[in-house]
Amino acid sequence: MVNAETFRQMALSFPEAEEQPHFEKASFRVKKKIFATLHEKDKRAVIKLSLIDQSVFCAFDKNIIYPVLGEWGEHGWTMIELSKIKKQMLHDALTVAYCTVAPKALAAKV
Question: How far apart are CA 60 and CA 79, in angstroms?
Fold first, then answer.
């Protein structure tokens, strides 16, 4: 339900967020730390969450939002199916991901 451009606009709406290439995908960073990546071709995104936040978001629907397979997922990296997620839930998840990675002073502005 969300296209790549909408995802990009949401991710870049946070204070000091910037887009940079990361291998074959786009990464979204704050103070050089990645809080999200965008896989346009697959219509997926990956965000960084705490394990508690990951469990909360994944409880909604594991067909839409779920841990990345393997060790990355065990560290909070979470896959989002952009073609299935509603805009408001994506915004909520991106906000949490940004606040997980951002310095406290920037996270307080959100």
Answer: 13
Q: Assign residue 31 a region (left: φ > 0; alpha: ψ between -120 and 50; beta: otherwise).
A: left
The SS3 of residue 7 is: helix
Sign of torsion, CA 109 103 32 91?
Answer: negative
What H or E segment, with its residue span, contains residue 106?
Answer: helix 104-107
Q: Is residue 107 within 8 Å of residue 97, measured between CB atoms?
A: no
Q: Give the pLDDT of the chain (110 residues) as one tens digit per residue.
A: 899 999 999 999 999 999 999 998 999 999 999 999 999 999 999 999 999 999 999 999 999 999 999 999 999 999 999 999 999 999 999 999 999 999 999 999 99
Separation CA 82–CA 98 (nearest Å)? 18
Q: Are 43 and 4 in contact (CB under 8 A)?
A: yes
The pTM (predicted TM-score) of the whole model is: 0.95
- 68 in Cβ contact with 76 (< 8 Å): no
